[in-house]
Every structure is written in C-alpha cells, then in structure tokens.
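S.,

As promised, the copper (II) ion run. Input:
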Amino acid sequence: MHCLPPFVPNDGCRILLLLAFTAAPAAALQRPCDPPTPLGPSHDLYCIELVPAPGIMGVSGRVELAYPPGPFTVAVTADGRPRFIPVVSLQGLPASATYVAWAAPPLMDPVLKLGEVQNGSTTLRAVDLEKFVVLITAERDRRAREPSGRVILRGQSPSTRLFPPDLLEFSIGAMGLPPGTGHHEHGDSDAAPDTLHWPMVPMPRGLTMLPAEMALRPQVTPYLPIGTPPAARPRDLMRLADGDTLRLEAGLVRRTLKGQTYTMYGFNGQYPGPLIEVARGSEVVVAFTNRLPESTTVHWHGIRLDNRFDGAPGLTQPAVPPGDAFVYRVRFPDAGIYWYHPHVREDVQQELGLYGNVLVRSPDGVGYGPSNREQVLMLDDLLVGASGPIPLGRESPTHALMGRFGNLFLVNGEPDYRLAVRRGEVIRFFLTNASSTRTMNISFPGARMKVVASDAGPFERETWVESVVIAPAERYVVHVCFDRPGRVALVNRVEGLDHLFGRFLPEVDTLGIVAVAPARVGHDLAASFAALRRDTATTRELEPYRQFLQRPTDKSLILTLETRGLPPVTQRLMQLDSIYFAPVEWSGTMPMMNWASTGRQVRWILRDPATGRENMDIDWRFRRGEPVKLRLVNERLSFHGMQHPIHLHGQRFLVLAVNGVPNDDLAWKDTVLVPAGSVVDIVLDPSNPGRWMLHCHIAEHLSAGMMMAFTVE
Ligand SMILES: [Cu+2]
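Predicted complex:
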C-alpha cells in the first residue's frame, strides 16, 4: 500500500491504514522502525528503509533515526541542524566479510564513517546532516577511512524527499486569486483613511512567494488597540511575603521599540509584567483589575494552585469584563520559574505584551548549584510591519496554520538585551519562552552552558548543552560561564525549510549581547561549574515514577487538524509541504498563506483515540495521587504536521520517552514539546483536585480549538 509521499495520502488510504492497525495494542514503548500503528511515531520521518544495491540478493535492513536522549524532546546542533542516532538493523549479510555504515550529503562529500555493522541491531554515532544518504559497504579492512568496497545497501534520509515542485502549475489560472482575497477588496488604497486595514506582512529574506500567495489576506477584521496611553516602563521586582497582596492591572501602554511607537497591552504599565518573587509554600493575594477594552483572565502557568484561581475562562471562572475585577489567591507549593498570562485570546493579549514571571524560591536555598548572579529572561518575538505591529484577527486568529512567527525579538520586552559580566562569571539564566509559536534554539556561542532545571524542578543531573531548545511556555534554567573577555551574543540559530525550493534556510537571530570584562570575577566558581551536579534527592523522589516507562499507556491523545475553505494555492502548497516535516518548524517560511489562514478555516484537534472524542468533548477523569501514563501522538498524516507544546494546568508530569527512547534524566514539567510525527510518553502526577485544561500552547492553535479539560477527583 503506497500511503506515503510523493503526495499527501488521500482519505481512503488513511482509513485503510487506521483499519489495519486499530486492533494493535499500544506497546509500552514503540520505535519508529517498528511496524507502524496509529499511536506510534512516524515510520517515514524517522526510519530509512535500506535498498539492496544491484545484484545483491537476500539482504535487507533499515536505519532508525533515533531520538538522542537529553533535556529536550528534540535534539539539534547549536546552529539548528537536527541530530539523530542511527540504529541500523540488518538481516541476511553473509558472514564472510566486514561491513561498515557510512553517511554523506547527497553529493557524497564528505563521507562520514558511522561504524562497523553486522546482522542484528547496531547503534552508531550521531548524525547531524540536513539531507544525507546511508551506505552499507563490504570492506576488506574494518579500519577503512572511506568506502572502497562493494555497496550492499543504501538509503536516503527522509529530508532528501524535498524537491522544488513544478512551479508552472502555480503560475497559471487554476491557482489564481481565490474569490474575495484580491488586493481590490482589501488593498491599502481603497481603505477608508481612519479604518484599520491589513498591511503587507514582512517577507523573510531569501524566500520567494508565488503571485497567488501574495494576494492572500486573512478574512477577519484587523484589530489593534487604539489610544495614547502612558509610556510603559521596565518591570518591577515584587518580593511578596506570605499573605501579601499585589494589585495587578491589565491595561493599555505605549511602547517604543526601535524608534517606533506602538499602543500595546501591559500589566501595571510595565513590560513584561512585574517579576513576582515568593518563597515556596507561601500564598499571596492578587487583586486583579481589567482595564483592557476586552474580557480577560490571569492564568498562573505551571503553579499547582487552588483550581478556582487558575484563570481558565468558562472552566474555573467567568472571563473578567472590561472595568471589572477578580481576586486570585495563589499558593506556591513548588520552587522554580513560572509565569502568568491571560487565558483569553492569547494570540491577541499575550502577543500585545501581557506576560510576567513568577520566581519561587526554596526557603532552604537548595535547588541549584552556585552562580555569581541571576538573570530572569522572557523571550518573545513580535510581528511588526513598517508602521507598527501587524494587526490581529478580531473575530478569530490569523496565522492559524503555523502560528504567528514574529520578526522583532524581545528579551524582557526590549529588542537589545545587554548584560555586562566579569571574566569567569557564572550566570544563572531563568529562560521563559513567551512567544506565540516560535520554538527557539538559544545559545551563547563561545561560552559553556549547562542545563540545571526545567519548568517545575531540577533535573536529576546537570547536562552540558550547546544550545537550549525552548518551546512556547516552556522554561529552562541554565548556568553559563563567560570565561573569555569580549562580546558574546545571545542567539537563536535555526534552520527553516523553504518548501518551494526544497531547501534548508539557516537563520541567526541576535537577541542580545553579553560584554565580558577582562577583570576576573571576585568569587571564582570555575571548579563547581566544571562539575556536573547530581541531585540525589530528586532522583529518590522520582524513583516511583520510573516504572511507568514499561507500563501500558492509560490514555492517548492524537494531535491533528482539519481545514475547510482554504484557498487552492494554500491547499496545494500544503500538500508539497507534507512530503517531509522537520521535527520542529523553526521559522515562518510560508508567511502569506500562514497569515491568511484563520481559525474559521483551520481547526486544531486533540483526539482521544479510545472514544473518538475531540477537544472540549473529551472528559478525562483521574484520581488524586494515582499517576497515569499519557501518550501524546503527533499525527504524521495530518494536513500540516508540526510540533505542539502541550501544557497541562495545575499538575506536573515527567517526560518518560520520546519515540520509544527512554529519558533517564527526569525533571518535573508542565509543558512538553511534541515534535512532528513523534510520540512523547509522560507520567502525570494528578495531585491537585479540580477541573483543569490541557492544551497546545501555540496561541493560534489554542484559539483554533486545540484544548480539552480533565478532572482530578
Ligand atoms: Cu499546536
């Protein structure tokens, strides 16, 4: 059955696949090269079928592109190339020879020796090539540095399926302008002078757009706040003691970014909102007032608070209308870095600046290894055009397919983050990704970095990393040692995918600069920084949850979407796109068609395969104190496969495995990135009673339906 590319599978094919595999039980762990099931990782994205060379009989094999275990659910190099561990399985090799596996770019230069292989399964050294071929050769000498013997088997990485399409079909009438989307109806020239209209979205460098794409506009009313509110100021640090009250007000602010003045939203007239610092175990009162022109709530992301104060509209409270107030009582049972943001139209309200951090300290001071100083950074990307933010969709989100990728990077609300340190200084960075959709690959080139903690607690042991992969709403705590004087950039380095030309597009975004002075820091932490710390208390605490790795799944969720009424050019381009999905869509490489897709055309779906129920029709019930194993399945065959950062309110969980590869360094989390075509197994600790939300944290996906509720009894 040919259900895979070159073309997206039709529904008949998909139904056959489902019928063929629904009877299969969900294995405790399933790897990409195992026989495909609807609840397994994608065979065609993470498994290469090897083909015998001409004249070779009776030999077969495949290469699993295995997930390399680590603190993130996707592995990439600092410059954004995906990294996999090839696991080669071979059958039928005659015993008389030595066999070697090789990998190389399609033009075969340079050739990388992966290692000696034999019948059965062999795990080889990691590969981080964009597109590559795999060769198995018979060699006279196992020490051969390049292939010189006969080729036995060969295969191509899934990414080599990317090819430029026949552009002719896009240039003629069939892909012409969809009705009502031309410049004529919505172009800048005929808009009334005082009516907001859709400006052109900025085009990323190096990308070509088709004429039919360029004519697309979102079919919703453009919205931006209006008025000349007071200028916003940087955030205050609010140290709150148990029982203290914080007055928090959401309202309009004026922001000046790169010389342009924008009317945006802010908490207490600040950007980001106040940094709230509290001790673990304390409880504070937040007296909230809504001065926005629309309803809102405040959600306390990742905090295991009382259900009534979770800020989920329609579930835990009615949305707060303009001019109204709500009193939140927030308790902090866990140390870590958290954040707060509205839970109404995040694609509008969070994008316009409503977010702030909560830093919960453990009173005994334990938690992290030593550092000289701390920096709490909220990372964001704002989408701006020539004269201000690109407007938002009033009735429904724009950018409903991939989410709104921004072009102006902000660290704590500022485009040019600056930090001055001394040589040898170890800085603890608390990183929060507050962007709508962008997963970032953050690094400080030239400075060593280790990951020490994630959303809601420390890792069992620290890990050296060359970059931090941080999805929307995730948090990571890293220690960075700046031991060479000079300037170190804070960068996001990724590879976008140009589907039209079938190529990878490297992208470097500089978010800030750390200036390292030649004078050495007074308190030298070189020795403690050089050692990777083990947190034995965390390992002991998490031990009972490890057994869930081998247990059958209690509940599964399929992450997918459905669309209606998309313009023909969008339909066709998305079919091209589906030939290959990178694990993460790092960049907005289809800006026009993504922009023009709204929540009226795109419905993102969480589906329970056990009941067929979707989104808010799902009604999961868990018992307090009884851990459950959940499987998150990012459907490969969906119309557009991309990563989803899945967030569970009011609880915490551990990431047990990615694509069947166990994770042996656990940390409590509340948001997990599920890469395209991948399966992530988590064990949930249902510790906090109430009715809670589970949703994708891509703001546009959430606003396009990708949410459900569950109850802890
Ligand atoms: Cu999503």
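The pocket of copper (II) ion is lined by residues 604, 644, 696, 698, 701, 706 (CB under 6 Å). Residues 1-25, 176-193 have pLDDT under 50 and may be disordered.

- D.
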